[in-house]
Specification:
five-stranded antiparallel sheet; Immunoglobulin-like; single chain; 3 helices; five-stranded mixed sheet; mainly beta; L,D-transpeptidase catalytic domain-like
């Protein structure tokens, strides 16, 4: 063990151990880091900078903290360099202490560089260490929406899916940050052990950019699992497109940014069974397909009620197979009678128009039936009040 001290006006390295000590003269030394405790010489005093983890330390826990302390003077700057996540930190009020404010990437080498100033002199101390290479890691495998250049509707959720179940949901949720250009309150809700969804209290303001960032690297996700790396995504919110329809009235009206675009006649579910009853509530448009092959759920050829139909210009609004789609065979019923298996049948011309103008995340509000849209039937998230929604957060 050893440290630099000033003896007779010269820097000397004092090695201690056993029963005695050795003193080595060193010329031209302006600073060093030994075991994470660099010594800054200023005049006849030794201003100690202590960096934790110590220089040369291995197997540092990714969820640990980097700390730099100065006994006298002020810390001017502290930087942390490594191939993993960008490490941020904060000084205390007197700039005598700096601590990192986020976790570290597993299996990564970092170098901490601290600059301190005292009596008009600035000196530099460094410390290098490596973090533990985790046996099990947690990664984000999908963020929806994720189509480059896509504009989405004002009801669009942010759906994050992980590559394994999350044990410590609170720790992981704390790393998730959503920053819209036009602020609005929102909350995360865990809908499964490996999936969490962000929904706003009110709809997004249209025509803006929303950024998602997960400072996941190094987070202790529970059960010996650490976050592998950070993740980010950008959403573009398009026009405020809202469709409202009365199933008993057989018409729906489409608006964009508050202005009416078109009223479309439709034929909804015939209501003979629950399965054939179109759901009432706040739906979100989920995806488009042209063409889409529709088959009767739970039935095979030869069963009563079996059908297989190819349709064009189909826009999905539930997981139970409800679409707005072209139905040339029922044009005579559209606007007057409900004859479908639960979809909204519209004319080929109206179907193409709706298909072309709609965005994922656009709002579709339907009323008039006794089958309430289920919150877990696709993107039925707006069926819950905001207070109900927030109960699914691990940070409630």
């Amino acid at each position: 063990m050893g440290e630099f001290v000033v003896i007779d006006g010269r820097f000397r390295l004092v090695l201690t151990g056993g029963a005695g000590a050795a003193v080595l003269a060193v010329g031209g030394v302006t600073g060093c880091a030994i075991g994470g405790e660099g010594k800054l010489a200023s005049g006849d005093a030794a201003d100690a900078v202590t960096i934790t983890p110590a220089n040369g330390t291995a197997q540092v826990r990714p969820d640990g903290t980097i700390e730099v302390k100065l006994s006298d003077g002020k810390l001017q700057n502290v930087t942390v360099q490594g191939q993993g996540a960008t490490i941020t930190g904060k000084f205390d009020g007197g700039r005598r202490t700096w601590r990192s404010t986020r976790t570290l990437t597993p299996g990564t080498s970092y170098t901490v560089t601290a600059q301190a100033r005292d009596d008009g002199k600035t000196r530099t101390v460094t410390s290098s260490f490596t973090t533990l290479k985790a046996d099990k890691t947690l990664s984000i495998v999908d963020v929806t929406p994720n189509v480059k250049g896509e504009k989405v509707g004002i009801g669009m959720p942010i759906i994050v899916r992980f590559d394994r179940p999350v044990a410590n949901k609170a720790a992981v949720e704390r790393t998730l940050r959503v920053t819209p250009d036009k602020p609005v309150e929102g909350s995360w809700r865990w809908i499964s052990a490996d999936q969490v969804v962000y929904r706003t209290k009110t709809y997004w303001q249209p025509h803006q950019t929303v950024r998602f960032h997960a400072s996941l690297a190094g987070v202790n996700a529970g059960g010996g699992v650490y976050g592998a790396e950070d993740e980010q995504a950008t959403l573009t919110i398009g026009a405020a497109q809202v469709t409202t329809g009365d199933i008993d009235g057989h018409h729906m009206t489409v608006t964009r940014d508050g202005k009416k675009l078109r009223t479309v006649p439709f034929s909804a579910g015939n209501g003979q069974t629950r399965e054939y009853t179109t759901t009432s509530g706040v739906h979100l448009l989920m995806e488009k397909g042209n063409p889409v092959t529709m088959t009767s759920p739970g039935r095979k050829p030869g069963d009563a009620g079996y059908y297989k139909q190819v349709v064009n210009y189909a826009v999905r609004f539930s997981n139970s197979g409800q679409y707005v789609h072209s139905a040339p065979w029922s044009v005579g019923s559209q606007g007057s009678v409900n004859v479908s298996h639960g979809c909204l049948n519209v004319s080929p011309a109206n179907a193409k128009w709706f298909y072309d103008v709609m965005q994922r995340g656009d709002v579709l509000k339907l009323t008039g039936t006794n089958r309430e849209f289920e919150p877990d039937n696709g993107w039925g998230f707006w069926q819950l009040s905001y207070d109900e929604w927030r109960q699914g957060s691990a940070l409630r």
